[in-house]
TrEMBL record:
GO terms for molecular function: ligase activity. Keywords: ATP-binding, Ligase, Nucleotide-binding, Pantothenate biosynthesis. This is Pantoate--beta-alanine ligase. It catalyses: (R)-pantoate + beta-alanine + ATP = (R)-pantothenate + AMP + diphosphate + H(+). It comes from Phyllosticta citribraziliensis. The keyword Thylakoid does not apply. Its EC number is 6.3.2.1. SUPFAM superfamilies: Nucleotidylyl transferase. HAMAP family: PanC (MF_00158). Belongs to the pantothenate synthetase family.
Amino acid sequence: MLRSATRIPSTKFAFSRRMSSTAANAFRVFREVDPLRAYRRQRVLDQKSIGLVPTMGALHQGHLSLARQAAQENDEVFVSIYVNPTQFGVNEDLDSYPRTWDSDLEKLHALDQELAAYARGRITTIFAPTTKVMYPTLPPSSEIDGPGSFVTISPLAHVLEGASRPVFFRGVATVCTKLFNIVQPDKVYFGQKDVQQTVIIRRMVQDFHIPTEVRICPTEREPDGLAMSSRNVYLGTRRRAVGLVLSQALHRAQEQYKGGRRRRDDILWPAYDLLNSRVMEQEDSPPTERALFDVDYISLADPDTLQEVEVVEEGKGAILSGAIKMLPIEEAKEGEDLGLGDGQVPVRLIDNLILKPGA
Ligand code: AMP
């Protein structure tokens, strides 16, 4: 039954295998639905719980933290790796999205070795379907009015990130519905980093009575505060340093909230202040020094509806979030680290902080 499940070749992970006697635990890679279902069915009969971590690959510590938590709360962890075309708009970066299959598997294998020491569960399964498997009847469309079977969650999908990326959450909700139907996980794991996604997935699970529990894990950050993201490899040193302004701005606004402010303007002004001054500073610098960026939005929103709030309700708290777009580098300096794509790939950075009720 498990014929199309690829076992990871033992030579590839010779080093990590020597570290423990877990060769029998090498995970399976499924590319088709039926064999994965057969494997899953056996897990049900064995009364094993499954935690699913959906990803688009290019794995970093943020993804691994989800798998780590999943392993602490389940008998087995399934990780899906699939770059979903329907969540990229027609002019977005589907082709340039980083794909790092070999190092993804190495990272998962190393994590699995770590989990052996303390976790309840292990990573047993990678699901890496082709697009023909995920979209079996029609070629997937990224057009707003394009044909296809899609899941839409309105109006949550149309604010914030959805305002600039109109098909994004339709694609996310559609692919997650497919993944949840295929895997039938007991729990699914998502990162706080993509906060709007977490709100939409929760709503979708509730509205469609999907029998799974949505678990949200904290945002993993670099030591300087930059939220980890697969797209950070495109930043390079100059844009990375300037891009930090987003998390700094959000932290300034959070300080206002912690200091007792509840009105929108009182909370947000220091964030706008910092962003504006950083924009002007870049515009006044020479092209060899600067990293220009556009501010898409800074939001203070209701945690359930994502509608903007004028005053944060004491018992509810709010979501403070923002997005900026780092523009291509205009003029490189000799020997400068411009990141993957030589600094020419625009990079959208998003980040958020939760303003907890009564904090
Ligand atoms: P992606 O591969 O970017 O679609 O992300 C897959 C999952 O990893 C999503 O649930 C993301 O929210 C989560 N994730 C991405 N970056 C981070 C991060 N820095 N910290 C925690 N979770 C993250």
